[in-house]
Design goal:
Length: 453
């Protein structure tokens, strides 16, 4: 089956393309051409009828995962885009559209109203539509989940508005993907999807804290704190895009729960995972992804993970010696450079219960214990380490030598407010020290070449 995914580079879209590509021919559509290896990538403006028509020709089904919360009048824009896409799908002979919308009965916020208007507009020209309505999606990258994460990680004490007690029914990202995949074969219509547990944002904060291994969060409700006022409070605490977060917060006064679970259960036969398991899965999947992408990450903050990346041009004659030196790691602080800085870091860690010790393995290979690290990757010209026993969070450190460039990457997923403060306080120092450590790799390589001569 040939399937188009509009919004392929978004939070859900990217994962859906990867899930579908094994069994279908996938056409990945986005404003800028995506970079999937197992799909046909196209840059498309779905608001342009001709472009959308060309992109959808030959497709049996199309997923519509586009929302414009980051623009001013997003409600009008989303409606126009949906009308154009629906008309183009009809003309192209698309047999069904699958749309991920939002829960909420008689919503009052522009965000939720827009979600439901889009579902109707997509089918206005007669293409059958499967509309899945969901609330908070639990997974790294979901704006609602990221708000939950940052608030819980950074604030051991919270003064919260009344919307934290609004009833919500979240759902795990992996379950959303299952529903989306099965939407290719169910009867068209509206289906409400959730985890089967009705909770509140307040309770989700407590569940997240427990699953993350944080201390209990003290929450004090302030009923007079309106959604508009509380949105500024969220701006101060979290780095989430303000236009998006403000629209989402205004919708949090509406209960978003599944009212007709039997219709969905009968059509899909999916048993969704409970909230605690969904949060645990999101945390675990984020670690797996972080570890697999250490050397590809850019400097900055992304979904709760800080990255520092240094690239230094080198003489290609040094590459072989730099690679050989990776196998000499372990048992000596001089290998890292800045011995005194590492000793200070070890002393600080001891105050929080860390017990770092120097260890040298028989061979530097995956899963070998090296000092306070575990080897994740040791391939030609590359070494990646995962920290063990860090109080401040989960960390990785990696090096790659390729095409005349030495790349050094360090990443940290802070744990709680102490981990957050650790990174923020030391961030200016980290940047300077990190470059000096990368340059130390070159000093060692040149030294050994000189000795060899």
């Amino acid at each position: 089956m040939q399937i188009a995914v509009a919004g392929a580079t978004g939070f859900v879209g990217r994962r859906l393309v990867e899930a579908l590509a094994g069994e279908h021919k996938v056409i990945a559509l986005a404003r800028r051409a995506p970079d999937f290896l197992n799909a046909t990538n196209q840059a498309v403006d779905v608001g342009n009828y001709e472009e959308a028509l060309r992109a959808l020709e030959g497709c049996d089904a199309a997923y519509y995962l586009i929302h414009s919360l980051d623009v001013g009048d997003f409600r009008a824009r989303d409606l126009d885009l949906a009308k154009t896409f629906g008309a183009a799908a009809k003309a192209a002979g698309v047999k069904r559209i699958v749309y991920l919308g939002g829960l909420g009965e008689d919503p009052t916020s522009d965000h939720l109203l827009s979600r439901q208007e889009v579902g109707a507009a997509l089918g206005a020209k007669g293409v059958p539509v499967v509309e899945l309505r969901a609330a908070v999606i639990i997974g790294a990258g979901s704006v609602s989940y990221e708000m939950l994460r940052y608030l819980t990680e950074r604030l051991p004490f919270m003064v919260c508005p009344r919307w934290v007690r609004t009833a919500i029914e979240p759902i795990a990202l992996s379950d959303v993907l299952l529903y989306l995949e099965k939407s290719l074969s169910v009867e068209p219509g509206i289906y409400e999807v959730g985890c089967g547990e009705v909770t509140t944002y307040r309770d989700m904060i407590s569940i997240y804290a427990r699953e993350r291994g944080l201390g209990p969060t003290v929450i004090v409700d302030i009923p007079l704190l309106t959604p508009r006022l509380s949105s500024h409070w969220v701006d101060f605490v979290t780095p989430v895009d303000t236009k998006v977060s403000h629209s989402l917060i205004e919708s949090l006064v509406t209960e978003v729960t599944v009212r007709d679970p039997n219709k969905t259960k009968d059509a899909f036969a999916i048993i969704p995972m409970p909230i605690a398991q969904a949060i645990r899965e999101a945390l675990d999947n984020q670690l797996i992804t972080a570890e697999a992408t250490v050397m590809d990450r850019e400097s900055g903050l992304l979904d709760g993970i800080y990255t520092e990346r240094i690239e230094i041009p080198i003489d290609e004659a040094l590459e072989s010696e730099l690679n050989d030196d990776f196998d000499r790691i372990g048992g000596d602080l001089d290998w890292y450079g800045l011995d005194s800085a590492w000793r200070i870091r070890m002393w600080i860690g001891r105050l929080f219960g860390e017990r770092w010790r120097l260890r040298r393995p028989e061979a530097v290979e995956p899963d070998a214990a090296v000092d306070w690290w575990r080897v994740v990757e040791r391939s030609p010209n590359e070494l990646v380490l995962r920290a063990e026993g860090w109080f401040f969070g989960e960390g990785w450190l990696g090096w790659r030598v390729r095409n005349g460039v030495l790349v050094q990457v360090g990443i940290l997923r802070p744990k709680g407010v102490v981990g957050f403060l650790y990174w923020k306080i030391l961030q200016p120092v980290h940047r300077k020290v990190f470059r000096l450590q990368a340059e130390h790799r070159l000093v060692r390589a040149r030294r050994r070449i000189k000795i060899g001569q």
